[in-house]
Amino acid sequence: MTVPDRPTVPDHAPEPAASGPFDPPGVVWSRVSPRLATARLLSAGIAYGVLAVVGVVFLVLFGHWWPWILVGVAALLALWTVLVVPRQVRAIGYAERDDDLLIRKGIMFRTLVVVPYGRMQYVDVQAGPLARRLRIAQIQLHTASASTDATIDGLEPAEAERLRDRLASRGEARLAGL
Amino acid sequence: MSHERPTGGPAPRVPDDATAPAAPADVPAHDPAAPGGDALDWQRVHPVTPLVRGWTVIAVLLVVVGQQTVNGLPEGQNLLEGDRWWQILLGILVIGIIGLGYSALAWRMTSYAIDDETVHLRSGVLFRQQRRARLDRLQAVDVVQPLLARFFGLAELRLEVAGGGDSGVKLGFLKEADANRLRGELLALAAGLRVGPHGGAPQAPGPVGAPEPGADAAVPDAAGPGPAPTGPVAGPASGVLEAPEQPVTAVQPGRLIASLLRSGATVGLVLGILAIAAVVVGTREIGVLFTALPAVLGFGGYLFQRFSGEFGFRSAISPDGIRLRHGLLETRSQTIPPGRVQAVRLVQGPFWRGPDWWRVDVNVAGYGPTGDGSEAKSVLLPVGSRDEALAALWLVLPDLGTPDPRALLDEGLSGLDEGEHFVGTPRRARLLDLVSWRRNGYAVTDRALVLRSGRVFRSLVVVPHERTQSLGLEQGPLQRRFDVATFAVHSTPGPVAPKVWHLDAHDAARLLDAQAARAHAARAHQGPELWMRREDLPIDPTGVPAGHAPDAPDAPRPAGGDGGAP
Questions:
Q1: Which CATH number is A154's domain given?
Q2: Are A122 and A154 in the same domain?
Q3: A23, A54, A87 — which closes off a domain?
Q4: Residue of A nearest to B466 (CA)
Q5: B280 to chain A, minimum CA–CA distance in Å?
């Protein structure tokens, strides 16, 4: 019936509360490179720049007042992005435990994902032109589930490679079927 | 040769294919694109395949022409007037012949082979494709018979592996008896049983090529790379080599119709018809009828699809796993080996509450996403009473790992609030989910995680611990305000998305941690991928043909897992 040596973890055991559900006790988070903020700000800046240019062109061509709305919205969004993105990047964390990898993200909408090494099907490492220029890379873990969102962005290339090899070898050691 | 396959057929069994791939089987395919030098015995599919496959093209053409004819052309001329009709006929004929020719070519270029560990499939005319599916990664085996194939007595064998998308191997079409026999052999191989002539077990017409040197299979002396050995045909054509099975549930057509009448689609259909009627009467415009017709037809089509897909549903259990048979026009016979079901969901819509009917869906890695159940692949029970639904759950997980499973499941199916077993949404967070906050909840047993949700559409999800892929925790700003969080188990693509909303944040965090540990422990103890390669599994030694097991052994454990228990 029941496996005797299964570690039973009581569900209602009084337990010293950590600093929130997204900080499991005893987990030391590794942070990602602050250059990720630069990368995200740059790409956002390009988008808002285009928006602003369109607004200005309309302003010059037609002289109406309403393109100001466009410019204003772009400016507000840009301000918000500048304020939020660095904090978002600081909120990204990952931790390698013995049997699984933890990834946490977000300030307003927080997520925490636990990916067991034995469940990994493959690991992707990606770096676009901007990311390469800034020397950061993205690593993505794939399990058999499409809903697993296990992406760590903004890793140092060396760290990304180390993590990739490490995850791959750990996954192999603990590989189970589906 | 450690195990004997429970089979009714005397040895050695050969195909009774007087008409089947006669010529092609004698002459193994030699196409230049194939990597030569392998000792595999390549087989062709049935020669009628192009006709069965190509007929859809002709049907589409006929429909298009027919539509044009009925609707008339813009100038009011009729396509079939004058001497046009023979041109059209000729066009259809030419296109049909071209299509048929291409299909025939595709047939010639398609061949398959089976060895002890792999299924090989070569296909493609211009772009050659060679696909190998490892049998130990087999997630499900289906025998599918579209309507036309049934007239010819043909069937397609679909092997599902967990590659996502179009990753399965389709061997089609084969003679029905051959398809069933091949399925039995593949399942035997996938289960870890070795099939060879020495053991008295049936021998495949083609599969037994040269086994891998390392494999412990007995090298069959009769089977070279040449044609299959011929011998006396013995036994009935079907049911040979099938593992014995025990029927579990059958859904009567009457109940299926009643369940569809009580579904949301029927309500939509009736409301749609009423609305159209009201508009037509109100505006006295018949044109509305035609513009609104597609929507109504959509509901109707959905209902018919459900009906034809789930008609004659029967489920059974065998040592090879769960067997499902269903279909009105296109019949499908599924086999899901033990431990391949990733998650189970029992659902009940608002109109099913009176008779207490439930529908059971599953996630199986090979079946992939099926949307809203319009495709009947991932259904374990289209409709059934509570007992039948729990029997379906039992097929997947015979031992729930709790002393009183019925009480727990009853609480999960129709209970409200936190009870003896379930932990739910705290009262302070009721504003986040006014309707069903009393239903949200989870319970943990030794074998599975049980998630409950939905007040109008009641739902109960069961995920065996060893089938957990990854775990997630989410919290939005409002949830943080109430100190609650949403817990999710990530399962393979399918209709079931295990999730429980608005748990107390600390409960959720503890559950996440404990569940990660439980999943890890369960994985370490789970049964082998080759589910028969165990010494202690009871196999009925008296080979009984399918469906006639008088006192079949205790149903095998489908969810590979009380495994490591000594």
A1: 2.30.29.30
A2: yes
A3: A87
A4: A178
A5: 44
Instruction: Tell me which residue range forms the domain holding A43.
Output: 36-87
Picking from B336, B418, B420, B469 by the largest number of A CB atoms within 10 A of its own CB, the best residue to mutate is B469
Cross-chain residue pair B474–A111, CB shorter than 8 Å: yes
Cα gap B425→B441, rounded to integer Å = 6
Whether residues A107 and A69 fall in one domain: no
Domain membership of residue A1 (yes or no) is no
ipTM, two decimals: 0.81
With an 8 Å Cβ cutoff, are A2 and B446 in contact? yes
Residue of A nearest to B492 (CA): A145
**DSSP assignment string, B202-226:** ---SSS-SPPPTTS-PPPPSS--SS
B131: tokens are 């696909």
Identify the helix (H) or strand (E) that includes residue B246.
strand B246-250
Q: What is the mean pLDDT of residues B294-302?
A: 82
**Does A166 reside within a domain?**
yes
pTM summary value: 0.76
Show residues of chain A in contact with B469, CB under 8 Å: 119, 143-145, 148
In the predicted structure, residue A166 carries a pLDDT above the cut 80: yes
3-state SS, B450-469, equals EEEECCCCEEEEEEEHHHCC
Q: How far is B501 from chain A (nearest CA, A)?
A: 14
Could you tell me if B14 and B228 are in contact, meaning their C-beta atoms sit under 8 angstroms apart? Answer: yes
Q: If you search the block for the tokens 């890695």, which residue do you land on?
A: B365
Check: CB of residue B463 under 8 Å from CB of residue B489: yes
The pair of three-digit structure tokens given for residue B546, joined into one six-digit string = 């399918």
Q: Average the pLDDT over B363-384 and give the result.
A: 76
On whether both A98 and A69 belong to a single domain, the answer is: no
CA-angle at B516, arms to B510 and B518, nearest 5°? 100
**pLDDT tens figures, B494-543:** 889 999 999 999 999 999 999 999 988 888 877 666 676 644 444 443 33
Judged by CB atoms closer than 8 Å, whether chains meet at B490 and A100 is answered as no
Tell me the mean pLDDT in the region B394-407.
Answer: 90
**Nearest-CA distance from B25 to chain A in Å?**
35
Q: Is the per-residue pLDDT at B449 higher than 70?
A: yes
Q: State the total domains in chain A.
A: 2
What's the DSSP call for residue B106? H
Q: For residue A24, what are its two tokens?
A: 């499991």
Rg of chain A over Cα atoms, rounded to whole angstroms, equals: 22
Helix, strand, or coil here: B235?
coil
Distance, CA of B11 to chain centre: 31
Cα–Cα distance, B202 to B78 (Å, whole number): 60
Alpha-carbon gap, residue B482 to B480, rounded angstroms: 5
